[in-house]
């Protein structure tokens, strides 16, 4: 199976250059409607009962060619920053949902689902929260109000929430965030319960990176998920960010890992996929990257409760990687000129 796929991929790679010229304009919706356009990633994913999404960010939405692909190729969007705490509650008790709303409105216009990202995270917190000490009762009240105000605001508009983001260290111990240190590990169950009260229908996720493989960090999630389920805490899914890097190898236990969470009765999703490499990219690296995109797409399709895949923006033009990982980049399926890369054709192949 794998072998065949690999051979097919080589073929696809060889054809890609030719196909770019033929298919790229229609993928961008420049040919108008209904002229034998190839199906979009979203349409291909829907045939499997999955979504295929992209993150986006408000400043990018003035880029019309960018927007054309975002609007047409995907059926799910995640705001890259607009729903984070610093953006939504810049002053204590003063809420600003304008950035998130802009993306929700765009998604609605394009009939795309939205993943809410994220309610509780140690990063990108507002200054008023990080610049002082809190007693447990104070922080509990702050956290509850933040979660419930935001979840209520987006009730019926997002289908899922990353309620807690990046709660564990690599060795599976709890990350010592302000929430953990002040409130103890119970803050996670509390956050889930508060979110559920505010929107009983929305799917509630825990989300993290480096949990694609079976190992100490994903084991910590597995154990926590078992406990939360046993206690009747409203947890519905685990989000695997899947920020992969060629130099660290492919997470070969991904499919088994997804399956063990499914068996707990949880949904899973690949929520922030990108596959970075040291730049400059070359043909070999792009081919390996394409293979990985294909493999992770197949892994999700192989596990019934893996509900969808989101790439962390779709073009290298707007990837977060170069700014955060020195010397790395080229992580997404479209290049900086918005042209599809081998990875794009590999995803299509996996979805066919
Ligand atoms: C990133 C955004 O893409 C950047 O624009 C921002 O400067 C930093 O955060 N894990 C997450 C995402 O859960 O929220 C992060 O997004 C990437 C890593």
Polypeptide structure, described:
The model is unreliable at 1-7 and 9-33 (pLDDT under 50). It contains 14 helices and 10 strands. The protein is globular, with a radius of gyration of 20 Å. The chain has a single domain, classed as TIM Barrel. Helix content is 45%, strand content 16%. It has 352 residues and is of the alpha/beta class. The protein has helices spanning 2-27, 41-46, 64-73, 85-88, 98-109, 127-130, 136-153, 178-183, 187-198, 216-230, 254-263, 283-302, 321-324, 342-351; strands at residues 51-56, 76-79, 113-120, 160-165, 203-208, 237-240, 243-245, 267-278, 306-311, 328-329. The structure holds (3S,4R)-3-hydroxy-2-oxopiperidin-4-yl beta-D-xylopyranoside (XIL). Residues 80-81, 165, 241, 272, 320 line the site of (3S,4R)-3-hydroxy-2-oxopiperidin-4-yl beta-D-xylopyranoside. (3S,4R)-3-hydroxy-2-oxopiperidin-4-yl beta-D-xylopyranoside is lined by residues 80-81, 165, 241, 272, 320.
């Amino acid at each position: 199976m794998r072998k065949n796929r690999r051979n097919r991929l080589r073929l696809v790679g060889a054809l890609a250059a030719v196909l770019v010229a033929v298919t790229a304009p229609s993928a961008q919706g420049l040919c108008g409607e209904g002229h034998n356009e190839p199906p979009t990633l979203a349409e291909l994913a829907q045939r499997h009962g999955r979504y295929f999404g992209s993150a986006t960010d408000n400043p990018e939405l003035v880029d019309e060619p960018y927007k054309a692909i975002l609007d047409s190729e995907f059926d799910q969007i995640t705001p890259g920053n607009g729903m984070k705490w610093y953006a939504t509650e810049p002053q204590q008790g003063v809420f600003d949902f304008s950035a998130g709303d802009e993306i929700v409105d765009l998604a609605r216009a394009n009939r795309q689902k939205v993943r809410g990202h994220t309610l509780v995270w140690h990063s990108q917190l507002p200054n008023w929260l990080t610049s002082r000490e809190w007693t447990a009762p104070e922080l509990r009240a702050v956290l509850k109000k933040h979660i419930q105000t935001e979840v209520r605001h987006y009730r019926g508009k997002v289908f899922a929430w990353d309620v807690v983001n990046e709660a564990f260290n690599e060795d599976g111990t709890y990350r010592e965030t302000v929430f953990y240190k002040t409130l103890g590990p119970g803050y996670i169950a509390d956050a889930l319960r508060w979110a559920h009260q505010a929107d009983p229908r929305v799917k509630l996720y825990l989300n993290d990176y480096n949990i694609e493989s079976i190992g100490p960090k994903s084991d910590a999630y597995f154990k926590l998920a078992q406990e939360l389920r046993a206690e009747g805490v409203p947890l519905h899914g685990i989000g695997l960010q899947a920020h992969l890097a060629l130099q660290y190898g492919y997470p070969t236990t991904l499919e088994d890992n997804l399956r063990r969470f499914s068996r707990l009765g949880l949904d899973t999703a690949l929520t922030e996929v990108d596959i970075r490499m040291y730049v400059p990219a070359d043909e070999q690296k792009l081919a390996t990257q394409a293979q990985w995109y294909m493999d992770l797409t197949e892994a999700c399709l192989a596990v019934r409760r893996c509900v969808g895949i989101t790439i962390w923006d779709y073009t290298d033009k707007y990837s977060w990687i170069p700014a955060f990982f020195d010397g790395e980049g080229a992580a997404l399926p479209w290049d900086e000129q918005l042209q599809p890369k081998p990875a794009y054709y590999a995803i299509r192949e996996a979805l066919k």
